[in-house]
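Take just one protein record:
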Amino acid sequence: MCGIVAVLRCPSDREAPALPVLLTTLDDADARVRAGGESLDAPAVAEVAAAVAEVAAELRGAVGTAALLADPLALVAFEHRTESLAGALAEFEARLDFDAPNRLEIEALNAALIAAKDAVWSVRNDRLRTARVVESLAGGGTHRGAIDAFHSITIALSALDRLEVRGRDSAGLHVLVAGHDLDLDDPTIARLVQLRGTDPLFTTGAVRVAGGHLAFVYKTSAEIGKLGDNTSRLREQIANDELLRLALRADTAAAVVLSHTRWASVGIISEANAHPLNHEELGIDGGQYVAAALNGDVDNYADLKALEALRFPPEITTDAKVIPALVSRRLANVADPVEAFRATVATFEGSVAIAAHIASDADRILLAQRGSGQALYVGVTDDAYVIASEPYGVIEECDRYMRLDGETMLVPGNPATQGQVVSVSAREGIVRRSYDGTVLPLSDAEFVRPEITTRDVDRGHAAHYILKEMYESPTSFRKTLLGRIVERDGGLDVVLTDEVLTAPVLDRLRSRGLRRILVIGAGTAAIAGQGVAHAIRTALAGHPVAVEAVAATELSGFGLTADMSDAFVVAISQSGTTADTNRTVDLVRSRGAIVMAIVNRRQSDLVDKSDGVLYTSDGRDVEMSVASTKAFYAQIAAGFLLSFAIAAELGVDGDGARVRRHEVLTSLRDMPAALDIVLERRPAIALAAQRNALSRGSWAVVGNGVNRVAAEEVRIKLSELCYKSISCDITEDKKHIDLSSEPMIVVCAAGLRGSNADDVGKE
């Protein structure tokens, strides 16, 4: 997977915010939280949240950034105010009794606190941080063109930081500057441009003159590194580019930003293959300037390259290069840039998401999406459009966004109508078409409000998301239990609200027709499902209802029956967007099953499809790493809570059941502290891992006949790389391979017809 980010500014009549008034608002909010004490209820905290959120909204965008940079003392004052308010909210939260029995009151207060912390975070970490970064990139320049452009660049780089989890072996950022006041015929300027305009590979620092506009590109690549390295290097390159600053010194300067973070699937990892790429071909002068970035794969790129006789430098081997080259060629015969782009992408095979920018149509970004596995979101704010491959790429700046649909066919059964092409223009707004050119009107209902903030996906000081999320596990676990465990009749019991135990859910549990409980999920959630099923099965010991854990795909593929009105299905998901799980939920519900979701994302697809929802943590504790940690633990905790609630509804509540319930719930309450203890022992665990980890790999390279020669060549190469390795003839030496002595990877050399080398691989 890769990540695309683009930023396009549009005209705005916003006035500069009144900074003294906003500072007073923060002072009032701080005083109210500190004076309220334990009597500060949910409505009062919600009012504080709304007031601070309005401050964040006023400071949003290039207008807010310009106001902050014009008043350095006010910028410092905002930093001090938000630090104080964040501390006040933390102190208030620490005093709260989250074990109080009234779950609804706790939910309301917790939701208000989250909103207040979100708002303070938005001011501190979105608005004020952005202003500081813009200041550093602009080098102290306060021209409106420079602030607007560097604000767009900062938003793009921040989004790239968040999208690097999709792939980070290389990254690039392209800036097209229109409206600059540079005299390109001036000898000094001409020399600067010429020095950076001769790189045929379009690597970092390259500059092109495109119809009077200036195009700048910054790139980096590294097979090994850590999150944040690429964007740090890009920021440094941009901050040191004096020609870019000169181009942006005019108030009329306007910049469009197109950027990309890559996970190489076609073409080696290099700056030459880093996106965005431009249209240029060897030996061909002219042609309209086009830059483009690609997620996914153009499966027929080699055919297109041959058919169109495209001529690229041999160092550029990525399939993305055909996109700008073919669009530029088509523009020679098609006047409408949108149609030229649409007609070009319609020739591509494969699953793709594409963003392109044409210099002759400078205030427009063109997007295309087709097939599954890719995504593009268009975020909207009052003075800009932000495009990204994930919602968390647009949430810093935008208060609403729409998603492209690359899968649905406009005409069922007609692949030519699958996919969408979207024009995002400062003049015309958003115009959407199908791949066959049919205009697809947009409705307001297709624009959704962000469900998360940048606080939810912030990596902080952790080197990797998995490390951050491991340390968040105790808090996530604790919040899952929040207000759901109560003292009752001398023991602990479970209380779930009516958003969990809805009327349809209770009707099914109390129905005499209930015969089975199925727990489904995909990936790690399916493993959590096994634990949840065990918890339910144990809580219902002696009850005739059958409980089974099954992978979502297994149930949809082999376990469906025409009538599932006897089934209660528990669907587990972290994001609520897992396609396999959601499709299975649709199928079982259409057959009469009732669905309970255990999920950590409010307003997600799974929530909409379910009859009842049990949120893990606070319903928005986003997990970014591929390997699930905190979400997995929270899902298990939620499963135990649900198991006891189900047991109570089914009448399994004898003395033995009550004793066990008390013991389990006591252990659950102690679990976060136990998790903290484990995390504190990280240094000792690291030493143990280093002491016991395998220090080398062992390989057996096998083949027979003529393939024995190839096997020996592979063995020599592996030996040069310091691997322990052997080669052998299958028919004669198979018995000499000791496959049990230590961990070993077997490489089989076989001809087109195969050989019994496969037998060794299987063994």
In short: Residues 722-744, 750-763 have pLDDT under 50 and may be disordered. The longest helix spans residues 103-138. The longest strand covers residues 170-178.
